[in-house]
Specification:
Layout: E1 2-7, E2 12-16, H1 36-54, E3 59-64, H2 66-77, E4 82-88, H3 99-113, H4 116-123, H5 126-136, H6 143-153, H7 160-172, E5 186-191, H8 199-208, E6 212-217, H9 224-227, H10 229-244
Parallel strand pairs: 3-4, 4-5, 5-6
Antiparallel strand pairs: 1-2
Helix pairs in contact: 1-2, 3-4, 5-6
Length: about 250
Amino acid sequence: MLSFLLDEKAGIFREIFIPDLPNFGISQPLSLKNDANNFAKLTEEIINTISQKTGAKIIDLFGHSFGTLVVSRTAKNFPEKIAKLILISPISRTALSHLNAKFVNLYFVLARILPKKQRAKWLRAKFAIKIMNNSAVKNPAKKPEILTKHLAHFSDFQSADAMMETYFSAGHDDILSFANEISVPTLVISGDRDNIAPEKEAIELSLKIPNGKFVEIAGVGHILHHETPAEVSKAIVEYTNDNMSK
């Protein structure tokens, strides 16, 4: 948990909770299928725990890329606990409709046919991580820094099979199919050079969500919160701070 001062004049502080994605970091994979629906149920449990321990009645919920599939489902099913929803580089439509995602799909198809002992090594292959990093990051100056983070953390999974379940969910689930059921105010942020989750689909999503708002970050791709952290942070703070200062 981190604490930040958002607005000194208004005296607004925020506590920020960043849980591990199941199967990554020190978190074990779920005993159920490791997909967006089950992660959303787990997120509801985490929110309830936070509420019980902090007394917070509602929270703002944030997700990036695959995380948007999770938090959008949480907000749809659990709106009474969510003040505002922030979706960065959302997977609006099934990701497999895009050329770059098709490469990733081939990467995982090959993993599926490998012997179990070789599967994890293949999924941690540095060449594939480098290709995906090159596609996702559009700021040349930021590519080496972000690649270092991807090499350190993308392969930090506990179970290769659970990793493949999560990937399958990322490639076959979407948000647009239920976007009109998301009742909480929602900010959608997208980079105009995102070729994994295209900006036009993010705009479409923001229009379909009843209380949606869209913000474009120019000149960046799918990892925009690493490429332009100040701009993304500013958009989030202004959006979440709006209600609190009134």
